[in-house]
Each structure stands twice: as structure tokens, then as C-alpha cells.
Amino acid sequence: MVRKQILRRAASAIAVMVTLTSVSFVSAAAELEVGDINGDGIVNAYDYVLAKRSTVEDCAPLTLSVSSADCYAGKTVTVRVSIKDNPGVQYASFMLRYPEELRLVNGTESVKLDAECFSGASPSILLSEENRSVCYLTNGFSLCSDNGQLMELEFEVDKNAKPGALSPIVLDRINLLGEEGKMPRLTDRGKIRVLPPPASRRATPLKGADVSQWQGDIDWEAFAADPDINYVMLRAGYGKVKKQTDKKFYQNYAGAKAAGLPVGCYWYSYAMTPEEAIIEAHTCAEVIKDCVFEYPVAFDFEEPKQLALPVAKASAIIDAFCKEMESMGYYSTLYCSSYYLNNTVSKEVRQRYDVWVAHYNVAKPAYEGNYGMWQYGIEENKAGVKGAVDMNYCYRDYPEIMKYSGRNGCKLNG
Questions:
Q1: HSE (CB half, 13 Å, CA atoms) of 386?
Q2: In this structure, which topology does domain 206-405 adopt according to CATH?
Q3: Looking at the domain covering 63-195, what would its CATH class be?
Q4: Domain assignments of the chain as residue spans, ordered by start
């Protein structure tokens, strides 16, 4: 009997609480004119929270935010601190704090202050690596209504960080003064999410093409619309001098990028010594220096005189070019046919560098080693291109590999 009375009293108390909450919500919702903001078909407390947040933002428009980004363990990532909806700040200071999983690269050298935002107030930074913090402060009391990026920092993610881990970057001890004193503000923290390393092999190979000046003027929109064209390898040039740049390379690069295709390139070699190969590497790098490639930079080794060389000499030429390109920040791969890969290139070089094997009209290349790409044949009647086009299978996720390695101009930054 006593238990029933207790239960009835508890039920009554809950009913009163629900009623009061409903009345309070209805009153607040009416005051804010809350509608179905989140689109779930009903007007409830969630819509009130969203409306309240919007009201707070209207009343305190100035926002300091830290960008978020994805990054691989052991790699570097760029973080940016920005200000928006600034009605006019005379003095600003705040502290950016970061966790143990992150290391500020090169100390203050990696912190870049924006040349324009708050420039009239002469901002500066103070670094405390022991406290894992960076302090930003203006040195004057000049009224600044600038919006945009305040500073940029480069962090390295701990190499032992687990995929999926989140590292928060927060703003603390914020002091903003305006003409009427301390200013209200909103802050957004940043998060660095650790990505898993890219898979070494694709579950399903991707088709793509390689082209040069011999394909003439390409209609890149039509070409990219072909379901078999998922990436393109462009001939950048050949030989030892810059005037041997492929006549259509820059046009093809711009067209492929505009059409949304991932791009790589290859350099046709005539080198007969390692010294000549190094010259070719520097010429290639000069030609492609302003390009960003999601796919490798390939060394095209197929001249008959090269293929007739002994294994040691041929391998030394390949190694010289690829090693030199890697020293300049590029991801190198070797293009060669199956037969000569097996018989003219040493095992050490084949294992040292990625391989793009050529072998037409077979079910599988005869090459005995691993390869990332296979040039399997020629196809006619591709939209946007006159004549035949070399076609390839790709077995690696090169765009992710480039981001992971930071090569070919690719970075994974927020």
C-alpha cells in the first residue's frame, strides 16, 4: 500500500515537471517564434535550442574560430585562427592551447601572422612549448574592423596517434576590447582527426588514359565524362632541355584540372648515363614546378638504345632520375614494358620504385613484380579525342598516397 502511494506521488511529480517544462517551452518558443527548424516535422525543444543559438549569435556576432582538419599520423597539418563579424576591436589577446598529440613545427617560425588582418594594431605572438600554448596579442590600441585570418600554425601529429583520434585545439583567456569596453564573442574550437593510412591496393582498379601532344586539342569536358576516364597521365616533355616540353602539356594540364580529373605526368627519357638522367630530372622539375599532381611523376624508359644497355647501366639511369625527383619532393614511378622490366631492370630498382608496366592485349602483364599501374592497350573513339588513346588500369589510391606522403605538391590541410 505504501509502495503504491509512493508511486502515485512520483507520477504526480513527474506530470507537474512535464507540464511546467511544456509551459516554459511554449512560452519561450512563442517569444522566439520557433518553427520546425530542424525539419523533423514537429516543433519541440530541439527547435528552441537552435532558435536560441541563432539569437545568441545575433546578440554576440563577433566570432573567433579555429579551423579543423584531417591528417595522417606522423604528418603535418595547417591550422588557422580567424575572426568574423567584427564590429571593431581596439585590443585583442587570446591563448591557443593544443594537446600532447600535436607538436608545433619549428616553434615560432611555423606561426604566420596575417599581413593585413589587425595590421594596424601590430600583433605579435608568444610561445610556451612547456604549456603547449601560443599567445596572440595586439601591441596597440588601434581600432580594427578587419575580418579574416589572424594567424596560421603548422602542427605535426604524433606518429603513434591512432586512426579516428580527435585532438582539440581551443582558444582560452580571450580578451577583446572595443570602444565601449569588453566585447562579447563566440568561439569555435578546432579538431584534428587522425586518418588511417591509405590502402596499398584498390579493391577495384580504376581506368584512365595517358595523352600527349599527339592527341591534339582535347575536349576535356567530353573526355572526362567518359566513365573509363577517371584520371589522366600527361606527357610533360622529353630529353634534357626545357624547349622539349610537350607542346600541349600546359594546355592539357589546365583542361584536365578544370574538368575535375586527377592528374599525373611522365617524362620521356633519352638518357644514356646517370648524369644525363639527373639533367633530365631537373628539366622535368622545372617544367612541372607550378603543377600539383594527384598521380605519380613517371620516368618513361623505352628508347631502344636504353633497353639494349646492360642491367647495371640501365638500372643506374633509372635510379638516378627517380632518386633525383624524389629529392625534389616528387613521387616517382618507372614506366617500362613487361619484358624489359624482367630482363633489363635490376630487382633492387624494381623494388625501390613504384612501377607502371606496359603490356598490351593480354589478360595479365608478364611482369613478375608488383605494379601500381598497367597500360593494357589502345582504345579508339573516345569522346573529346581524335584518334587512339593509351588506356591504363590503376591499382593504388594515388591521390591518398600523395596526401599521405606530402609529395607532388599535395597536402592534406584544413
A1: 6
A2: TIM Barrel (3.20.20)
A3: mainly beta
A4: 63-195, 206-405
Taking every pair of Cα atoms in the chain, the longest distance, rounded to a whole number of angstroms, is 104
* Nearest of 354, 367, 360 to residue 395 by alpha carbon: 354
Residue 167's DSSP bridge partners are 192
Q: Digits of tens for pLDDT over the chain (414 positions)?
A: 444 454 455 455 444 444 444 444 445 445 556 777 666 667 776 667 666 666 554 555 799 999 999 989 998 889 999 999 999 999 999 999 999 999 999 887 878 898 788 888 888 999 888 889 999 999 877 788 889 999 999 999 999 999 999 999 999 999 999 888 898 999 999 999 999 888 778 889 999 999 999 999 999 999 999 999 999 999 999 999 999 999 999 999 999 999 999 999 999 999 999 999 999 999 999 999 999 999 999 999 999 999 999 999 999 999 999 999 999 999 999 999 999 999 999 999 999 999 999 999 999 999 989 999 999 999 998 999 998 999 999 999 999 999 888 899 887 654
DSSP 41: S
